[in-house]
Amino acid sequence: MPKNFIYLLFILIVIISSCSMPGIEIKESVEQLKEIAKTDPNDCVHSYNLGVKYLSIGEPDSAIIEFDKAIKLNPHLSLAHFGSYCAVASQEPRSFGNLIDANVSDKKRDIFFDTSKTALRKAFVYDPYFDWKVYATILKPQATMNFVEGILFNYIYKGIQLFIFEQYDESIKELTEALEIVPNYYRLKFFRGLSFVKTKQYDSALSDFKNIIDSVETQNKEEVSQSFLNPSDYYYIVGYTYLQLDSLQQAEEYFQKTIMNEMSYYMAHFQLSNIYNKRKQYEQAATELDAAILLEPNDAVMHYNKAVFLAQMKKTEQAIQSYKKSIEINAYYTKSYFNLALIYEGKGMKNEAIDCYKKFIQYSPKKFKDYISQAENNIQKLSVK
């Protein structure tokens, strides 16, 4: 047997063995987690943990129910949206490679999509840096491939799995070596970029993300369109990274490019509104939120933020209507109740203020204890007057 072949076989065995990592683990049983959730049913963390537990024991339908509960309690919770994606994906007889590359369009997944957005995409747009660890519950190597494909796949799989398990320095090393074999494989650059972000190497992260954009803007746009993210998402993550660095001008530029590439990208409008708010350009901030709301009218967070901007501009009556709209869409987004109560209190509308404070207390998780205490004190003061 040739030495080269023996060496190659040895490498393959080492790579496959090194990819064997433990899945995500929640020690409590389902029943224990249910009891914990009863202590504070308004806390999205409890529903999320139950979802992960169900997913880890092979009950994706129950997992989806719990992730949906978490999303109801916190509409922009990326982890819950990603959990839903994993739960749906786990029901498909697909490999890791297909899952990570495929556009998701089958009927089972469509149940969990809001309009044209996938659960995965929502997870991304709400927080491009979200924790991928729950993906370990469905992470499986490719079952059938030829020998060379097997070596390359497990090499790639190792780098991405290291990222998932938060071993970012090792992930960067493995992905860099894999990129020496397939230098234009932009999915590897994406995960390496995320690993750079996690290790606060932002210049390197931006370099990887922008390199993907170069591919988008040249001959590979169609190929990138077939990825698990859309081409516009790479402009978005560059803008998001600049925003975290407080480089507002560059962030603004890339969010605008995101919209130029995808007119319906409502979260890019949302991020622009945050930039203008930081600059105290409240009119522009409100305008961007109007654009976001036009594209995503049933997002309670958007209406809440708009109300905040309107209140800052002393447009109190309009702010009241936006807070009310946020509550109408989702009563569990309780910030709207609290701020609305403050406005009513300022206007001398005691009964309305008391009612809003009570609703805030009713729907808020216990971790809001300081605000709950303030609401209780305000109710007491208003009741005495």
Quick structural gist:
By secondary structure, the chain is an all-alpha fold. Helix content is 71%, strand content 0%. 41% of the residues are buried.
What does this structure look like?
- The chain has 385 residues and is mainly alpha-helical.
- The chain folds into 4 domains: 20-137, Serine Threonine Protein Phosphatase 5, Tetratricopeptide repeat (Alpha Horseshoe); 202-262, no CATH class; 263-324, Alpha Horseshoe (Serine Threonine Protein Phosphatase 5, Tetratricopeptide repeat), CATH 1.25.40; 334-385, no CATH class.
- It has 22 helices and no strands.
- It has helices at 3-18, 30-39, 44-56, 60-73, 78-89, 96-101, 107-110, 119-126, 147-164, 168-181, 186-198, 202-217, 221-225, 231-244, 248-261, 266-278, 282-295, 300-312, 316-329, 335-346, 350-363, 369-384.
- The chain is globular.
- The termini are far apart.
- Mean pLDDT is 83; it is low at 1-22, 93-105 and 108-117.
